[in-house]
Amino acid sequence: MKQKKVPMRMCTGCGEMKPKKELVRIVRGPEKEDGGAPEIALDLTGKKPGRGAYLCRSAQCLQKARKSRRLERAFSCRIPEEVYGQMEKELGAYGG
User: Fold this and answer.
1) CATH class of the structural domain 8-28+38-94
2) pLDDT at site 20
3) pLDDT value at position 73?
4) Helices (DSSP H) in 3-80: which residue ranges?
5) Which residue ranges make up each domain of the chain?
6) Could you tell me if 41 and 76 are in contact, meaning their C-beta atoms sit under 8 angstroms apart?
7) Number of C-beta neighbours around residue 14 at 10 A
8) Which pLDDT score, from 0 to 100, does residue 96 have?
């Protein structure tokens, strides 16, 4: 029987290719009609609409991505410090 292909994604923090199920998706939601900044959050289900980027489940990879501004480049927008803080808390609670 033919084996299924495992989808691979690159971690935005460390740059390693890993199976998609081992990574956490970060999503930039759709643009708001009033011109406000789009929502950026962890997508633990992988089902939210919007542009996605992937990170390992470790706080170190989030710190690397934050320091090198890789998430800001991936989403083409500035990410406020409080959003990074919220993502750190959620990632810690999730088991990262």
Assistant:
1) alpha beta
2) 93
3) 93
4) 59-67, 70-75
5) 8-28+38-94
6) no
7) 14
8) 55
Closest listed residue to residue 14, CA positions, set 24, 29, 2: 24
35: region left, alpha or beta (phi > 0 left; psi from -120 to 50 alpha): left
pLDDT given for residue 95 in this prediction: 63
CB atoms within 10 A of CB 65: 26
**What confidence tens digit (pLDDT) does each residue in 14-42 have?**
999 999 999 999 999 887 777 667 889 88
Helix (H, G, I), strand (E, B) or coil at 21: helix
Name the pTM for this structure. Answer: 0.85
CA nearest to 22, candidates 51, 65, 54: 54
Residue 16: count of CB within 10 angstroms of its CB: 13
